[in-house]
Every structure is written in structure tokens, then in C-alpha cells.
């Protein structure tokens, strides 16, 4: 009986963790460039002295769904949509380099260019946050080159002020951090810079979360959790009944 209780208890814990992942996906159904997190459950034998008779359920991080989200034409010069396996390089809160596909860029009053996730974009040439001088018009090229028309100048004075750093990275070499940003799994082998056309301006990639399917998954996990809790309760009832029979027999 204790085996059944253990399996049900560890299964309920894994189900709760899976619900957290699904809830996170559902909350980001409208986040530009968001990649849905994948959750999985696997069985594992409990190590330790004695006979290996205990098997538990373990929640595992299965990475993220790399399918491209829906494309929406906005006409906004600060909206960019990246090619497959291309990521914007940003300065993470800890000062390191991280990656995102949030292409709804923002320009702060002091001229700093930010990704939609709120972190400064890095310059491909200097590796430092990209700063845009005062201007009356700005253009982002398909290769990430940022050009401006300075204040008081005509269109013929288009000047290049930097190039947005973008990297080429497959899902297998990236992992999502607690801050929602992607980072390379192996710090010794950072993702390679992306060459050629890496983005389209005036188009925004949405989240790849299927809101309807995710909501159904949430309901399924809730019912699964309720079933596991009922199994634990039934096991406890059976144990109490067995103890009562033993007392009567004594």
C-alpha cells in the first residue's frame, strides 16, 4: 500500500509542477516572440540502501517549442520578426549575454534600444548596448544594421550608427532562465553570429502558444491531480481499515 501512496504523492507533485509550466505558457499567450515551455514526467527508481522497490514520478524540463509564432504586419519601424533559429542578443540583468525573440523593440528617451523583453540590445561590432543618437528618422535593415537621418538633415544624409547583434542558435544549445531569457547551455561555446538577412522590419512575431490547447491541457492536469489526491485519500482509508482489523484480531 505504501508503494501506491508514494507513486500517487510523487505523481501529484509532478502534476502541480506541470500545471505551473502550463500556467506560465497561458500567461504569455500574447507575448511577442514567446516560445512555449515543454514539460514532461518520467519514472525513476529511488536510490538508497535496501531493495530498490520504490519508483517515483519526476517532473522534467523538456525545453521549449521552437515553432514560429504567427506573423503580424504592423508597419512599425521598431517591430522586427526574426528568421528561424535567429535570436536577438541582449544584456542580461547580471551583465552577461542572453537571447530573446521579442521583436517589439523600444527606444528610451536617452536613445537606448531595448528588446521587447526590456533588456538593452547589443551592438554586433562592439558587444556593448546599442545607443541611438538624436534623429528624425530611423531604419533597421534585414541584417540588423541601424541607420538614422540626424536631426535637421535631409534623407541623403542617412548614417549607419550600429548593427543589432543576432545569433544563430538551435533549440538544443539554448536553455531558458528564470528571467525568461535564453542562454547558451555551454558557456565555452557561445552561439555564432547570424549572417545575412536575419530579420524583417515592420512585422512582429507573436507567441507560439496555442491558447485553446493550453487551456484544455490545464483542465486535464487539474483532473489528473484530483485523481491522484483521491488515490492518496483512498490509500489512507484502506490503511486505517487494515489497522482496525489488526486491533480486532489481537
UniProtKB/TrEMBL annotation:
What this protein is called in its record is: Flagellar basal-body rod protein FlgF
Which coarse location class describes where this protein primarily resides?
A: other
Q: Where is the Flagellar hook protein FlgE/F/G-like D1 domain?
A: 87-147
Q: Which domain of life is it from?
A: Bacteria
Its family remark reads: Belongs to the flagella basal body rod proteins family.
Q: What are the Flagellar basal-body/hook protein C-terminal domain coordinates in residue numbering?
A: 201-245
- Assembly information from the UniProt record: The basal body constitutes a major portion of the flagellar organelle and consists of five rings (E,L,P,S, and M) mounted on a central rod. The rod consists of about 26 subunits of FlgG in the distal portion, and FlgB, FlgC and FlgF are thought to build up the proximal portion of the rod with about 6 subunits each.
Record organism: Luteimonas granuli
Segments forming domain Flagellar basal body rod protein N-terminal? 5-35
One annotated Gene Ontology cellular component of this protein: bacterial-type flagellum basal body, rod
Q: Which InterPro entries match?
A: Flag_bb_rod_N, Flagellar_FlgE/F/G, Flg_bb/hook_C_dom, FlgE/F/G-like, LlgE_F_G-like_D1
Amino acid at each position: 500500500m505504501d508503494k501506491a501512496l508514494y507513486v500517487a504523492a510523487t505523481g501529484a507533485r509532478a502534476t502541480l509542477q506541470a500545471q505551473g509550466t502550463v500556467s506560465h505558457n497561458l500567461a504569455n499567450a500574447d507575448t511577442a516572440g514567446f516560445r512555449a515551455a515543454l514539460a514532461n514526467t518520467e519514472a525513476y527508481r529511488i536510490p538508497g540502501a535496501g531493495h530498490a522497490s520504490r519508483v517515483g514520478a519526476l517532473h522534467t524540463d523538456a525545453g521549449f517549442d521552437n515553432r514560429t509564432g504567427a506573423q503580424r504586419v504592423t508597419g512599425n519601424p521598431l517591430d522586427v520578426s526574426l528568421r528561424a533559429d535567429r535570436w536577438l542578443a541582449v544584456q542580461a540583468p547580471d551583465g552577461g549575454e542572453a537571447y530573446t525573440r521579442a521583436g517589439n523593440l523600444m527606444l528610451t528617451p536617452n536613445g537606448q534600444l531595448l528588446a521587447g523583453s526590456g533588456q538593452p540590445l547589443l551592438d554586433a561590432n562592439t558587444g556593448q548596448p546599442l545607443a541611438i543618437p538624436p534623429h528624425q528618422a530611423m531604419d533597421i535593415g534585414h541584417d540588423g544594421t541601424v541607420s538614422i537621418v540626424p536631426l535637421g538633415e535631409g534623407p541623403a544624409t542617412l548614417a549607419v550608427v550600429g548593427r543589432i547583434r543576432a545569433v544563430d542558435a538551435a533549440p538544443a544549445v539554448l536553455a531558458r532562465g528564470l528571467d525568461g531569457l535564453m542562454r547558451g547551455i555551454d558557456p565555452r561555446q557561445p552561439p555564432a553570429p547570424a549572417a545575412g538577412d536575419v530579420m524583417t522590419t515592420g512585422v512582429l512575431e507573436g507567441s507560439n502558444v496555442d491558447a485553446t490547447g493550453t487551456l484544455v491541457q490545464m483542465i486535464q492536469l487539474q483532473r489528473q491531480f484530483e485523481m491522484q489526491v483521491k488515490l492518496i485519500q483512498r490509500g489512507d482509508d484502506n490503511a486505517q481499515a487494515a489497522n482496525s482489523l489488526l486491533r480486532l484480531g489481537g
